[in-house]
Structure formats: structure tokens, C-alpha cells
Specification:
It is a multi-pass membrane protein. Helix content is 87%, strand content 0%. The protein has 13 helices and no strands. The longest helix is centred in the N-terminal third of the chain and has 55 residues.
Amino acid sequence: MTLRSVFRRWMDHYFSDEEAVILLVVLVLGFTAVILFGRMLAPFLTALVVAFLLQGPVSWMERRRMPRLLAVFVVFLAFIGVLLALAFILMPLIWNQLVGLVQEAPRMFASGQQLLDDLQERYPNLVTPDQMQNWIDVAGREVTQLGQRALTLSLASLGNVLTLIVYLILVPILVFFMLKDRDRLVGFTISLLPQRRELMTRIWEEMDDQIANYVRGKFIEIIIVGTVAFFTFAYFGLPYTALLAVVVGLSVLVPYIGAAVTTLPVAAVAGFHFGLTNEFLYVLVAYGVLQALDGNVLSPILFSEAVNIHPVSIILAILFFGGIWGFWGVFFAIPLATLLKALVYAWPRGIKQRHLRESAETHTES
């Protein structure tokens, strides 16, 4: 069997059906549009995610016989309230703590250098002077880069403020109309698709509930983990509690990796504030318990209906989609991996099943 014949059989298996070719074209065009125009479409995509998130409460109110328009207004007003609280209460607090942390970085660096000196004196065979100097040089470069990034951020603050204003105006408007005119927008989108879309409908039905549950569950997980982290750090008297709580909450977006990476800033702040004391160990133990409860109790409860995907596949999806789309790529890495898995299983199987069904119907009619 030649390579050409193998390739032809592979093409016949996957692309012999017109609907499969159309589905491939739709996927390629969609991914291409997001990759090329993702920055320009960012407010629209953000509003789409938020509307997808808020559709659950709207549907819940509709099932309680509340008029849809009234349900949309109630949910939208709640969303605006949360958005204003984040913009005028939480964000300034986080910004002030971030500025304070940057200002404290030189002192933290000096404290870390003193800690290395103490380790070298206590354990001369474990930590050599060359290793200690290398660590100091690396930490010095990181502190210098942090200062440069802070300076660049301050110089570009005007552009960031303008971008934030655009988001604060456009995103709520888009969210409102996406919720209010959902049926019209969905109908218009469906009208653009070909009449023969059985395969696309099957894949979308398989993915719809899973994506919705994942998005809502992930937001709930961020809020719960961040809130518990805030009160835990505040109980121990740790500085920068709001900033660390936000970092810990957002770390759940990256399974397996986020918890490990977030340990570094938590340990650094606790070590600088408490030193190598029992309080430092208590903070690390409490943080470890929080991550263990999240991974073994909270996540299984929130994502019990999620498709089982191997950890290696999840990490590869995070690296790939995060490299393409940044934050949103990381956030949607698992749903996108689930979509690819559904495509792999449904594409040839769905086409084959439909051909068998059509053959059976033809045989029955004859």
C-alpha cells in the first residue's frame, strides 16, 4: 500500500461527507478570526463569556415563570453592581497593595540575602558561597526587571485607563443585548449555517452543557478559593491579603501548575513578614490544606459532569491555547480540549452512523 493510497483512504474516511468539509471550514475560519482579530474583538468575546455565564440565572428565573425581560433586567442589574464593586472597591485595594509590594521588594530582597547568609553560616556544606552568589544575582535581576515593568506600566497607564473605560462601557452594553435578544442572535447565527448540519448540531449539543457548567463552575471556584484565602491570610495577619487572595483565586484557572506557582509569592511574603518561625509554617500548612480541599473536594463537586481528560492533555491544552490567546486561552483550555476530543470521537463515527441510517432508510423504502 503506497503513501498516496493511505492518504486517500484517510481523506475519504474523514472528508468524504459534505457536512464534514463544511464543519472543518467553519472551525478553521473561527479559529483564524480569533487569532488574527482577537485583540479587536476582545470586548465582544468578553461580553460573550459574561452573557454565557449570566444565561444560567436568567433561565432559572424563567423556569420560575418570571418574564424573560424582567429576568434579564434583574440579572443585568446584579452584574452591574458586582462590576461597580470590583471597579471602585476591590481594584483600588489590589492596586495599592501591588504598589506597596513593589516598594517593599528591595527590603524583601535584602531580607532574603540575609537569610541566605544565615543558611551559609549554619550549613556551609549544604550551601556553598558560589551557589549563594548565584542565587543573589538571579534575585537581583528579577527585582530589577520587576522595577522596569512597574515603570513601563506607569508610563503606559493612560492607555490602560482608556482601555479599561472602553471595557466598562462596551462590555455591559453588549452583555445586555446578548441576554435580551438571545433568541434573535442565535437564530441569525444558525441561519448563516448550511441546512445540513446534523454533525455540528450533535457536537454542539454535547458541548453546550459542559461548557456552561465549566464556565460557571470555574467562576464559583475562583470566588470560593479567593475568599477563603483572603480570610485565611487575614487571620494570620499576613500583609497584602487582597492581592494574594486574588492571585490564589486565579491560580485555579491553571490546573496542577497554578497551585505550585502561587506557592512562591505566598511563601515569599510569609517568609518576609514572619521569618523562619512557626507562623511561617502555619501559613504554608493552611495554604496547602486550602489547595488540597480545592483539588479533592471542591473541584470534583463543581465539575462532576465534566468530560474526563488526561492531565497530560490538559497541560498541553493550557500551553497551546494559552500561548495563542493568553488569559482566555488558559481559561478555556479545558473546554477547547473537550471540544477537540468530541470532534475526534464524533466526526468519523457520526458520519458513518448517518450513512448507515440513510442506507437502512433507502433499503426500507425499496
